[in-house]
Design a protein that fits this description.
- This protein is mainly beta.
- The protein has a domain of 55 residues: OB fold (Dihydrolipoamide Acetyltransferase, E2P), CATH 2.40.50.
- It is built from one helix and seven strands; from the N terminus they run αβββββββ.
- It has a four-stranded antiparallel β-sheet with strand order 1-4-5-6, with no helix packed on it. Strands 2-3-7 form a three-stranded mixed β-sheet, with no helix packed on it.
Length: 91
Amino acid sequence: MLQDEQLRLMPMPRPFDGYMEVLARVTSTGLIHLERNRYSVPTEHANSAVSVRLYHDHIAVVAEGKRVARHSRSFERSQTFYDWPPPCWIV
């Protein structure tokens, strides 16, 4: 029965990517303000609008269709989270 039924089943869709999306403006110092916290974004996006995808455990910052930053999500207040780029001699 299973073999007969498998021929009629629909293919599996891609996994559900569940997030809430908000717009944010990157400050001149490369930070976005979100839920009373600040998260770093690469400085080439300073003074521009980005999309912030809120997942249950992390946030993803998307600019021009590409993810440019990712941080663990914090539900505390008045925290600043930086993701420092590696020094140029390590690259």
